[in-house]
Design goal:
The complex is a heterodimer. Chain A is α+β, with helices and mostly antiparallel strands. Chain A is built from 20 helices and 28 strands. By secondary structure, chain B is an alpha+beta fold. Chain B has three domains: 54 residues, Uridine Diphospho-n-acetylenolpyruvylglucosamine Reductase, domain 2, CATH 3.30.43; 107 residues, Uridine Diphospho-n-acetylenolpyruvylglucosamine Reductase, domain 3 (2-Layer Sandwich), CATH 3.30.465.10; 117 residues, Enolase-like, domain 1, CATH 3.30.390. The longest helix of chain B has 22 residues. In chain B, 46% of the residues are buried. Classes of the chains: A alpha+beta, B alpha+beta.
Chain lengths: 759, 309
């Protein structure tokens, strides 16, 4: 059954944070101000690559209204950050490696004075050659951007002998795929308010996807104990992975500590483009062979990722891509290698899909090419080679077994659009009144890992408590960045416990209050909240009923949780409000849980245990006069276990697919010799509502094996993964051309009108 | 969004002249430190991109009396330079008699911007999306030069636009009514001229980098009259796009008049568009892509006209 408002009935709820967001009354962290605050700005490098000879700040310091001008000399602790491997300087000392590198930071009484101060800082550079091509950065004579070399990370996975196996293949597809430097383009750019407190602590109001990680990194930079810092991190105006790593926080924290005054920082869009993360541009070479019957025999992959100047999670993204270029198919012989390379281009890092988007564009492209060579339906060809539910994972690791792959495959096979594709054999027959408009239908499939994977700490947990005022407090260390985390949490508390929405107070995004529930990344937060609530439901409910039964002088077994308070099981009658319960009991009613995201029993770092399966079929219209492609219909099938919040689920798949539409047709942060050419949203174009006018249907497949107690799988990323290869397949049907490079260049698909082609 | 440093630093002074002469004098006395501003929507993008510095003085043209109306003049429709794009788009006279302009404005910028931006600004920019449509209607523009009003054909003004003094002030645009018979009740674009057994055709296309709210890559207007025997009686073709100042392809128009629209004619037109259209390329679209697109779109329109005749 399709996921929509009508089919969801009473489960379609108004988001608790909806009104504030729709009316604009909600205060985001970057809207905050403090009475005597100063404004902080960062001086960033003029060059993508240079030695820094000297930084003179005296003129800037003397400017009236300037309270601090800080350079590398003023960083008390570790002058570096990076979630996995801290190699990005907070403030550069002797070398800059990209145009976002910070050299100095200024606090002043107004933005104008802060800007003037930046202009008074004199930096003497010795310009160095720019490594703007990852392939060139690997040459033996290329200058080293880091002591250990320009190869930031390498991966390999092999099985059998592909060289020998290719000799046995009846058909081989060989292709090189290119994907763009996509920008997250969250509405709220990076920023925050940094407040030194009277007790000597520092409060940081700044969006992040993992408050405790920021706290650890900032403590390391400031050289203070972690509990001297409090991170308030929600609500967030969009992140998509882009605010997972530190951005302006080190500067705000340093300036606040130095001046003793509150500091406001908020990147302009241009500064956000210049300094912020982007999706890794990848070049993925694939050679894949089948036997006469269409059975996959050998698959060789080489991934080249441009990670930019510093690590952040570049290695983890490559691990993910390496796993997902193998994907949901079976091969006897495999040879996968990946390399992520330091360059002087923009920072690449974590982004919704996490390397899966690039991998699946290439892998599904291979499947379509091989099916065509074999003369098979591309969907039947996939079925022939698809994993069975009890097969090992891509890295031969044990995984949570589900029939997800089979189920999403069948959903697409039986979909109206795919049936239309089957009937649409003759693409050349013009049916349109404008015969230069050509239509095509294509489909693609993926399995997408959730959680951080083997070898990376992945804590989870939360707390339930009856607060003194009678509110049921749900406390989690997750963040709300627009994905609907609060809506999902509220819905679970209402549906699974029986509380009313007004009984609940949700507390997130405050390191002084919440437990470390791990990061809000990797499609994991909703699944981990569900699991936490499963674990806490009985103990917490038992405590509530037990204390209520003492007050009501009855047996706990006669009572139940109800909207507003405790009721009899036999009839809906409110006997004791939660407020009265809280007043009348002197026993704390509280339940806390802590566990780890389930991982596979393997030593392979990054290998996943839980997967979401998803597929999409799309219909496109190609205007061959202009070469422009319009997606007119999409049908998604997603196997991710139970639907927690129907509106949130639909929103995630629609939203992910809208990002994928941009990735496929529009978006590329163009760089020239290490400088961004698309510096603002007037040249970096994301899809508008008009670009997304086509119908989007989502069919959730909730079925899980009876023995599966892992609950809902992640859906935050998977909507952004399969659309690109499906569009490429549809374009193939419409135009006869194979797209290998994203975003699709209209010039590549443009044709002379048919009535002028013959002489 | 974000702390906009440049804007805060500039904090310009805004002047509100009541007449064109006042505006002119302000511009004279404030010189290069000032700029005429209508909706300011295009200027904003230039300031923010650092293409132009935000001057210290804004001369607000929207307070000048009489420039915000659309009225019927002796020989045509007169549109004040300060009329908002949205008001032009919704104007029923323009919809009925100058539908290519309506279509051009439908495709210009985004709704919130069309509420601010003016037709005068779109014209004065010399690259606005409305220009190919206006060229297709033989539009005239009226400027104030400090002393008197000057009337000039839009196509002539565009040829010298880049060399003119910035003090020039666009007052209005005049769109001559075409000689036409009443053709009520017929579909737009397919109006048969009753007595002459001819058919009027028109089309406006904007090809951008996305479906809406996009800078243009190619803009095209094509309009004219075809006889029953598919002979071109009249035709106007105008092209623009990107940073290029739009042009009329008058040479091609002359070559097409009197010709029968058939494959050979369309092929000729296709080749000539590629020769005569000299778009400016940028990192997003090559000159060759723009030429092919323009030639394809024009050829397709001619094919449609012939097929429908």
């Amino acid at each position: 059954m399709l996921l929509n408002r009508v089919n969801s009935g009473g489960r379609w709820r108004i988001r608790p944070d909806g009104i504030g967001k729709v009316t604009g009354s909600l205060t985001y962290l970057t809207d905050m101000t403090a009475g005597s605050m100063l404004y902080g700005l960062v001086l960033r490098s003029e060059y993508p690559h240079a030695s820094v000879i000297s930084i003179q700040t005296d003129k800037a310091e003397k400017l009236p209204g300037v309270h601090a001008v800080l350079t590398y000399r003023d960083v008390p602790g570790l002058n570096a950050f990076g979630i996995a491997h801290p190699d990005q300087p907070v403030l550069c000392e002797d070398r800059v490696r990209y145009v976002g590198d910070a050299l100095a930071t200024v606090a002043a009484e107004s933005i104008v004075i802060a800007q003037q101060a930046l202009e008074l800082i004199e930096v003497e550079y010795e310009v160095l050659g720019v490594l703007d091509d990852p392939e060139r950065a690997l040459h033996a004579d290329a200058p080293l951007l880091h002591p250990k070399g320009n190869a930031m990370h390498r991966t390999t996975f092999t099985r059998g002998n592909v060289d020998e196996a290719f000799k046995q293949c009846a058909y081989i597809a060989e292709e090189i795929y290119y994907t763009p430097r996509q920008m997250h383009t969250y509405m709220e750019t990076e920023g925050g308010l940094f407040v030194p407190e009277a007790d000597g602590r520092l409060t940081v109001y700044s969006p992040t996807q993992h408050g405790f990680m920021d706290r650890m990194q900032l403590a390391r930079i400031l050289s203070v104990p972690q509990d001297h810092i409090r991170i308030i991190s929600s609500p967030i105006g969009g992140s998509f992975g882009g605010k997972d790593e530190l951005n302006v926080q080190p500067y705000g924290a340093l300036l606040a500590t130095k001046t003793g005054r509150a500091i406001k920082m908020h990147n302009s869009r241009q500064e956000s483009v210049r300094a912020g993360l982007k999706r890794h541009p990848m070049r993925i070479s694939m050679k894949t062979g089948v036997d006469e019957a269409g059975q996959l025999i050998a698959h060789r992959v080489s991934i080249l990722a441009d990670t930019g100047p510093y690590s952040t999670l570049g290695a983890e993204v490559l691990n993910f891509a390496t796993e997902h270029v193998i994907g949901p198919y079976k091969y006897e012989h495999l040879d996968v290698e990946g390399i992520s390379v330091f360059t002087n281009n923009g920072m690449s890092g974590e982004f919704r899909g996490f390397g899966g988007n690039q991998a699946i564009f290439a892998l599904e492209g291979q499947m379509d090419r091989l099916a065509e060579q074999l003369g098979l339906s591309p969907w039947a060809f996939r079925k022939l080679n698809m994993r069975q539910s009890d097969d090992l994972g891509p890295f031969d690791q044990p995984i949570a077994m589900t029939e997800g792959a089979e189920l999403v495959w069948s959903a697409i096979e039986n979909s109206r659009l795919w049936q239309e594709q089957v009937r649409m054999k003759d693409r050349s027959a013009p049916k349109h009144s404008e015969p230069w408009i050509k239509t095509g239908i294509g489909a693609a499939l993926t399995m997408h890992g959730a959680g951080l994977g083997v070898g990376i700490p992945d804590p989870a947990g939360g707390r339930l408590e009856l607060a003194a005022d009678g509110k049921i407090e749900a406390v989690f260390g997750y963040e709300e960045f627009g994905q609907g985390l609060l809506a999902a949490l509220e819905q679970m508390l209402v549906e699974q416990f029986g509380f009313g929405a007004s009984d609940i107070r949700m507390v997130i995004g405050d390191t002084d209050v919440v437990p470390d529930s791990g990061s809000t990344t990797a499609s994991r937060a909703t699944a981990m909240m569900w699991k936490s609530l499963q674990r806490m439901r009985k103990p917490f409910t038992d405590q509530l009923l037990k204390q209520a039964s003492t007050i009501l002088r009855c047996h706990p077994g006669e009572l139940r949780i109800w909207e507003g308070g405790i009721s009899l099981i036999t009839e809906a009658q409110l006997l004791l409000t939660y407020e009265d319960l809280a007043k009348q009991t002197d026993v704390p009613i509280r339940s806390e849980t802590s566990f780890s995201f389930p991982v596979s029993d393997t030593k392979r770092v990054g290998a996943h245990f839980m997967y979401t399966y998803s597929a999409v079929v799309v219909k496109v219209e190609l205007n061959s006069l202009t070469g422009r492609v319009k997606v007119v219909e999409q049908q998604h099938a997603v196997a991710a276990g139970p639907v927690i919040n129907p509106q949130g689920y639909l929103g995630q798949i629609e939203g992910g697919s809208s990002m994928a539409l941009g990735f496929t047709l529009l978006e590329d942060a163009v760089m020239d010799k290490g400088h961004y050419m698309t510096r603002n949203l007037d040249t970096y174009l994301v899809p508008t509502i008009v670009d997304q006018q086509g119908i989007v249907e989502v069919e959730p497949i909730e079925h899980l094996p009876a023995s599966d107690d892992y609950g809902p799988r992640g859906i935050g990323e998977v909507g952004s993964v399969t659309l690109a290869p499906a569009i490429a397949a549809a374009v193939r049907q419409a135009s006869g051309k194979w797209v290998t490079k994203l975003p699709i260049d209209p010039a590549f698909l443009q044709e002379k009108p048919f009535f002028l082609t013959g002489e | 969004m974000g702390m906009n440093v440049q804007e805060t630093i500039a904090s310009p002074q805004v002047w509100h002249p009541q007449t064109a002469a006042e505006a002119w004098h302000l511009k004279q006395s404030l010189g290069t430190d000032s700029i005429y501003v209508s909706g300011g929507t295009l200027l904003r993008t230039q300031w923010e991109a650092g293409i132009a510095a935000m001057p210290k003085h804004f001369i607000n043209l929207s307070s000048i009396r009489g420039l915000s109306e659309i009225r019927v003049g002796e020989s045509g429709l007169i549109i004040g330079g300060q009329v908002k794009l949205q008001a032009c788009r919704m104007n029923t006279m323009i919809q009925r008699y100058f539908p290519m302009l309506t279509e051009a404005l439908r495709l210009t910028a985004a709704p919130s911007i069309r509420q601010l931006a003016t037709l005068g600004g779109n014209i004065a920019s010399s690259i606005g999306d409305s220009l190919p449509a206006l060229l297709g209607y033989d539009a005239e523009v009226v400027w104030f030069n400090g002393i008197e009003e000057q009337l000039i054909l839009l196509k002539d003004w565009l040829q010298i636009a880049r060399n003119l003094h910035p003090e020039r002030l666009l007052l209005r645009v005049q769109l001559p009514f075409q000689q036409r018979e009443e053709a009520d009740g017929l579909e737009p674009g397919h109006e048969e001229l009753v007595h002459s057994k001819t058919k009027r055709f028109y089309a406006y296309h904007k090809v951008g980098r996305r479906e809406a709210f996009t800078p243009s890559v190619v803009t095209v207007s094509i309009s004219g009259i075809l006889t029953e025997a598919r002979i071109v009686k009249d035709i106007r073709i105008a092209l623009g796009g990107g940073q290029m100042i739009p042009i009329r392809l008058e040479q091609l128009e002359r070559e097409l008049i009197g010709e029968t629209v058939d494959t050979q004619t369309i092929r000729h037109a296709y080749g000539r568009v590629v020769q005569l259209y000299e778009p400016r390329e940028d990192i997003f679209a090559s000159s060759a892509y723009r030429q092919t697109t323009a030639a394809n779109v024009i050829a397709a329109e001619l094919w449609k006209i012939a097929a429908e005749a």
